[in-house]
Amino acid sequence: MSADTPTAPAGVSPATVDRVATASEFACRWMLARPDRFAELVAAGVLITPADRAELDTAAAALGETADPAGWLAACRQLRNEWLFRIAWRDLTDQADLEETLIALSDLADVCLEAALTQAETELAERHGHLHDDQDRPQRLIVLGMGKLGGRELNFSSDIDLIFAHRGAGETDGSRPLDAAEYFKRVARRLVQLLAEQTADGFVYRVDTRLRPFGDSGVLVASLPALEQYYQTHGREWERYAWIKARPVAGDIDGGRRVIEMLRPFVYRRYLDYSAFESIRDMKALINRQVAQRGMEDNIKLGSGGIREIEFIAQAFQLIRGGHEPALQDTRLLPTLARLGEQGHIPAHVARDLDRAYRFLRRLENRLQAWADQQTHDLPADDDRRKRLAVSMGFEDWSALSTAVADWRRRVHDAFEQVFLSPQTDEPVAEADDDILALWEGDMDADAAAELLATYGIDDAEPVLAAVARLRDDSLYRALADRGQRWMTRLLPLLFGAAAATPEPSLAMQRSLQVMEAVTGRTTYVALLVEHPTALSHLVRLCAASPWIAEQIKAQPVLLDSLLDPRVLYRPPRKSELSAALAEELAPVPEADLENRMDLLRRFRQRALLRVAAADVSDAMPLMIVSDHLTELAEVILTAALDMAWSQMMSRYGRPTIRGGDRDGEVARFAVIGYGKMGGIELGYGSDLDLVFVHDSPGDQETDGDNRCLTHQAFFLRLAQRLIHVLNTQTGAGRAYEVDMRLRPSGQSGLLVGHIDAFAAYQREQAWTWEHQALVRSRPVAGNESLGEVFRVVRADILGAARDVDKLRREVAGMRRKMRDNLTRREPGNLDLKQTPGGLVDIEFLAQFAVLRYACECPPLLRFSDTIRILETLESAQLLDYDTTRQLTDAYRAYRMRVHAGALQQSRAMIGETELQAERDAVQAAWQAWIGEPDDQAESGPDMAPKSRP
Question: Please, are residues 227 and 131 in contact by the beta-carbon 8 Å criterion?
Answer without folding.
Answer: no
